[in-house]
Design goal:
It contains 15 helices and 10 strands. It has helices spanning 28-36, 56-63, 83-91, 116-125, 130-153, 160-165, 167-177, 184-194, 201-224, 230-236, 245-275, 278-286, 291-302, 334-337, 372-389; strands at 39-43, 49-53, 68-69, 157-159, 310-313, 317-319, 322-324, 329-332, 394-395, 417-419. A hairpin with a 2-residue loop joins strand 6 (317-319) and strand 7. The chain is globular, with a radius of gyration of 21 Å. Bound molecules: protoporphyrin IX containing FE. Belongs to the cytochrome P450 family.
């Protein structure tokens, strides 16, 4: 393919993420790829190519296979290369072959393979103790109620994203990491900028740097003044070898970047989907416990992580009847896989009472989302409190005018203007 642009933020053709019609259905271009097959090769705008996996079974097969690597240092992704880098690489003997192994000293375990990944993941999952989760559950309800009280005190209209969906998970992660109340605004702002693909990459890089500095200060503070939070636990639980400051900063940053934008967008988009499906909204209003299973359906139906996970083939690997060459980049099309007709009947219908079936919204395999229980609590509690405490909740803008986050890492809505009685 001929490179189409030299100033790329992401080389996947943008139409693959464009919603055409229903804002909750997968993009038509993503579905069209699936019509060609569950594993398809696409040309990227930088002149390279990648593979899109869109069948439910095929996504599980890739994510469950350790020969598909998560290591972005060892296997440079064609998704992050400039057209010049692609041309250089193609000119080298061996073309797309992986680089030599590098020793990893960081703590970005979401982008690591065994043996480093399972060790760091185990240490962190050990910090999600029953006691800490119970405390967080109570905290989620308190935060949700406080945010709604502020909305009500301010009138009968608000932007639900700004007033509720963004601050709720941000405040919960602050509690998890032990961030001081006074520092929460700074933290929240840097996160939003770092993850906003529509901003210039220089601005995003600067925000990521600020976030790391923030985390580094936090780690130093927790070394001398431990609290009842995850960072303090990771520092003071005497692991052998102990975690370095760099690993701690990376692990805290991973928790934040994996847990904040995802949950915030699930909250905003779920509220939008419920308001557009009044029968389902009525179900929740009549019995909020319907959300116990209902959040699984929302996660399946909305699949906000619409741009990944991504993996790299460490050798020539066959998925279904397609062979993916060593070193190639593979992107999961979760929105389509979560609507696979071979798995669900009437997959395009939102039905909160659908019997619970495992979906791929939290991934699968070794990197399955570590925060999924916390995310479920935030979604159940957040949505139940919104719908029961704000009677008559409704959109104040036609649904077709709600701005969609089509080209963002995480899908959702930029704003959701609502009113209540
Ligand atoms: C991993 C989705 C909320 C922490 C993942 C992965 C997905 C995902 C798809 C797998 C990535 C991969 O395979 O490469 C979501 C969604 C969420 C959510 C849709 C909200 C609705 C959270 C929360 C936290 C969290 C609240 C923590 C506070 C993590 C971590 C990983 C992860 C640490 C990396 C696990 C590993 O590499 O072993 N998440 N997530 N996530 N998530 Fe979540």
């Amino acid at each position: 393919a001929t490179p189409r642009s030299t100033n790329l933020q992401r080389p996947i053709p943008p139409e693959i993420f464009e919603r055409n019609g229903c804002p909750f259905d997968p993009p038509a271009a993503m579905k069209a790829l699936h019509d060609r097959g569950p594993v398809t090769r696409i040309d990227l705008l930088n002149g390279a190519h990648a593979w899109i996996v869109s069948g439910y079974e095929e996504v599980r097969a890739v994510l469950g296979d350790a020969r598909f690597s998560s290591d972005r240092l060892r296997y440079p992704s064609t998704l992050s290369m400039s057209p010049e880098e692609v041309a250089d690489r193609q000119a080298q003997p061996g073309g797309q072959c992986p680089a030599a192994p590098q020793e990893r000293k960081d703590g970005m375990f979401i982008f690591m393979d065994a043996p480093q990944h399972p060790r760091l993941r185990r240490l962190l999952s050990g910090q999600f103790t029953v006691k800490r989760m119970k405390h967080l559950e109570d905290h989620v309800r308190d935060v949700a109620v406080q945010l709604i009280d502020v909305m009500r005190a301010d009138g009968t209209q608000a932007d639900l994203v700004k007033a509720f969906a963004l601050p709720l998970p941000s405040l919960v992660i602050c509690e998890l990491l032990g961030v001081d109340y006074a520092d929460r605004t700074e933290f929240h702002h840097s996160t939003a900028v770092a993850l906003d693909l529509s901003r210039p990459s220089e601005e995003r890089r600067q925000a990521s740097g600020e976030l790391r500095q923030f985390m580094a200060k936090l780690v130093v503070a927790k070394r001398s003044h431990p609290g009842d939070d995850i960072i303090s636990g990771l520092i003071h639980d005497h692991y052998d070898p102990p975690l370095t400051d760099r690993q701690l900063v990376d692990m805290a940053t991973t928790l934040l970047s994996a847990g904040h934008e995802t949950t915030a967008n699930m909250l905003g988009l779920s509220a939008f989907a419920l308001l557009e499906n009044p029968d389902q909204l009525a179900c929740v209003r009549d019995d909020p416990a319907v959300l116990d299973n209902g959040v699984e359906e929302l996660l399946r139906y909305l699949s906000v992580f619409h741009n990944g996970p991504t993996r790299f083939a460490t050798e020539d690997l066959t998925v279904g009847d397609v062979t993916i060459p060593a070193g190639d980049t593979v992107v999961m099309a979760v929105p389509v896989a979560n609507r696979d007709e071979q798995r669900w009947s009437e997959p395009d219908r939102l039905d909160l009472t659908r019997p619970r079936t495992s979906h791929l919204a939290f991934g699968h395999g070794a990197h399955l989302c570590l925060g999924q229980q916390l995310a479920r609590v935030e979604l159940r509690t957040g949505l139940a409190e919104l719908i029961t405490r704000l009677p008559g909740l409704r959109l104040t803008t036609p649904a077709s005018e709600i701005p969609l986050r089509e080209q963002m890492v995480v899908y959702g809505v930029h704003s959701l203007p609502v009113a209540w009685d």
